[in-house]
Amino acid sequence: MSAAPVFRRVLLKLSGEGLMGEKDYGLDPQMLAVVAEEIRTVHALGVQVCIVIGGGNIYRGVSGAAAGMDRASADYMGMLATVINSLAVQNTLERIGLQTRVVSAIPMTTVCEPYIRRRAVRHMEKGRVVIFAAGTGNPFFTTDTAAALRAAEMSCDALLKGTQVDGVYSDDPRKNKSAERYDRLTYMDVLSRDLKVMDASAISLARENRIPIVVFSLHNPGAFAQVMRGEGRFTIITDEA
């Protein structure tokens, strides 16, 4: 018999780039299907799941600002990209039988619900997967920070970051083969060593609210469910190493 999940309610942070698969831009239906199946497996364990998705596969606000665009306008464009990704993930999840709700920090009631904290909590209590779109609704904040904020607001037991690699490394292991991999870190380790896990405001927010951050690879089949049972390869970031 498989082990019971170690977390009751979790927030999964997905990068927009993680939804590209082998493509250079946009969304890969095969990758969406893989992500959806991972979420369904965890949901079947009785875990309440909510999701924050980045928009870097479509538009990245920082890049737009670097090209001379007003930073606030560029960030709003990036937030709209996250809504596109959220609707795509919703559609894929519902095709495999999961009830979902997309809730947006920027009201756009034609396509999704506005973000209301108590309503989002109720959706999860009813077994629905909640997808938070449009970041925090404010420019100058990343979707990493939005993930930490929503995890705190939803009283999540952990914030999981699904990435391209199986944990946190001292350097990009795809470029530096000698990069050191960590099993456990503290929030201060991440901040003091400037490890590229999430931005500093997201790490600080998680630290203040004592939300563990778990980093794992979404490219390993079954990895999300393994992490939920405290198994497999991942890096956990907490107050204590």
Can you tell me about this structure?
This protein has one domain (9-238): Acetylglutamate kinase-like (Carbamate kinase), CATH 3.40.1160.10. The protein contains eight helices and eleven strands. The protein has helices at residues 29-44, 61-66, 71-95, 117-125, 143-153, 187-192, 200-208, 223-228, and strands at 9-14, 48-53, 100-104, 113-114, 129-133, 158-163, 168-169, 181-182, 184-186, 213-217, 235-238. Helix 1 crosses helix 3 and helix 5 (143-153) runs parallel beside helix 7 (200-208). The longest helix is centred in the middle third of the chain and has 25 residues, at 71-95. The chain is globular, with a radius of gyration of 17 Å.
Summarize this structure briefly.
It is built from eight helices and eleven strands.
- Estimate the helix proportion, in percent: 25-40%
Largest sheet: 9 strands, mixed
> What is the terminal-to-terminal distance?
30 Å
- CATH fold topology: Carbamate kinase
Taken from the alpha-carbon principal axes, the silhouette is globular
What is the CATH class designation?
Alpha Beta
Order of helices and strands: EHEHHEEHEHEEEEHHEHE
Number of strands: 11
Structural class: alpha/beta
Question: Which architecture would the CATH scheme give at its second level?
Answer: 3-Layer(aba) Sandwich
Poorly predicted ranges:
none
Count of the domains:
1
Mean pLDDT reading: 94
Cα gyration radius (Å): 17 Å
CATH superfamily: Acetylglutamate kinase-like
- Fraction of residues in β-strands: 15-25%
Strand order of the largest sheet: 4-3-5-2-1-6-10-11-9
Number of helices: 8
